[in-house]
Design goal:
The chain has 2 domains: about 180 residues, Rossmann fold (3-Layer(aba) Sandwich); about 130 residues, Orthogonal Bundle (N-(1-d-carboxylethyl)-l-norvaline Dehydrogenase, domain 2). A 5-stranded parallel β-sheet has the order 5-2-1-6-7, with helices on both faces. Strands 4-3-10-9 form a 4-stranded mixed β-sheet, with helices on one face. The chain is an alpha/beta fold. The chain starts with a strand and ends with a helix.
């Protein structure tokens, strides 16, 4: 199968590099600056085990796509989704399939409206990686490496099996799930809890753990988010399913921890955030269901104010 990876950032570069390692036919759709960097240095991925993957890549730029592709891996930030869809549309046929690993749930509705449910899979990853200034991709030491794909209607398919085989040939374990939507909601739940805590405190986990009111605040955020996802029809799954709330609670109880979710890191670096697509989305769902969600509303307001102030600073 031919794979098109939209961008060669942290996640796109990681998955693309591992697919190439396993022998897959991979092309990266990138901007001119990244294309030049990859042409000069190749794709460099530093893995958790200390090894380094260096590989040559095929790249293409928007408007210069060479034919169509069987699988499009979509790992952009949620706020770039509209532009991403325009960029990948010429690469698709009726048999092409999009595998999104974005944060949140809103993108599934957007993608299925644009391309149809038959051309969109559910997907999630908990792999954490960062793109360094020199273009290297550094996989985080945070060893929660869950990857899953599945048909949105829960059916089995040969295409899921083929994608799983290609990823695992490169060393990426993948689960095919017949409940992928519920799994994505579980990740959405955990992400919003973590992002809400960090957005309201503007602090790393260790500082929150040291504060006297930290544990009760974390519990309040978990309780509020639990009420909303339960009302939406996706309550936290019982064991043996992963305990998203418990994982987040554990992360924010470690004194000295430097952990911060991507939302916080984006704010620290002055970048746009996925706030509206994650925290904002869950806050809107709560409002439509008549559920009072003051912490989600406060976090959303905080992020909206951040974006307004960021815009003012960028103009000066």
């Amino acid at each position: 199968m031919r794979y098109l990876i939209l961008g060669a950032g942290a996640l796109g570069g990681y998955f693309g590099g591992m697919l190439i390692k396993g022998g897959a036919d991979v092309t990266f759709l990138v901007r001119p600056k990244r294309a030049a960097q990859l042409q000069r240095d190749g794709l460099i991925v530093k893995l958790q085990d200390g090894s380094e993957l260096r590989t040559k890549t095929k790249t293409v730029q928007q408007g210069q796509l060479n034919g169509t592709y069987d699988v499009i891996l979509l790992s952009c930030k949620a706020y770039d989704l509209d532009g991403a869809m325009d960029a990948l549309a010429p690469a698709m046929t009726e048999q092409s399939v999009i595998v999104p690993v974005l944060n949140g749930m809103r993108h599934i509705d957007v993608l299925t409206v644009r391309f149809g449910q038959a051309r969109v899979l559910g997907g999630l990853t908990t792999i954490n990686a960062a793109l360094t200034p020199d273009g290297t991709i550094q996989q985080s030491q945070l060893r929660i490496n869950l990857n899953a794909i599945g048909e949105l209607d829960g059916s089995t398919s040969n295409r899921c099996a083929a994608i799983k085989a290609d990823l695992e040939a490169g060393g990426v374990p993948v689960q095919i799930s017949d409940t992928i939507v519920a799994m994505m909601w579980a990740k959405f739940f955990g992400f919003v809890i973590s992002a809400t805590i960090a957005s309201l405190t503007r602090s790393r986990a260790g500082a929150i753990a040291q504060s006297a009111s930290g544990p009760s605040f974390v519990s309040d955020v978990i309780d509020e988010c639990t009420r909303v996802v339960t009302a939406a029809g996706y309550p936290p799954a019982p064991p043996p399913a992963p305990d998203a709330a418990g994982i987040v609670r554990g992360m924010f109880s470690q004194q000295g921890s430097t952990y911060g979710p991507s939302m916080l890191i984006d704010m620290e670096d002055g970048r746009p955030t996925e706030g509206e697509h994650t925290i904002g989305d869950l806050a809107e769902r709560a409002a439509k269901m008549g559920i009072c969600a003051p912490l989600l509303t406060a976090a959303r307001c905080n992020l909206q104010a951040y974006e307004i102030n960021r815009g003012k600073h960028s103009k000066t």
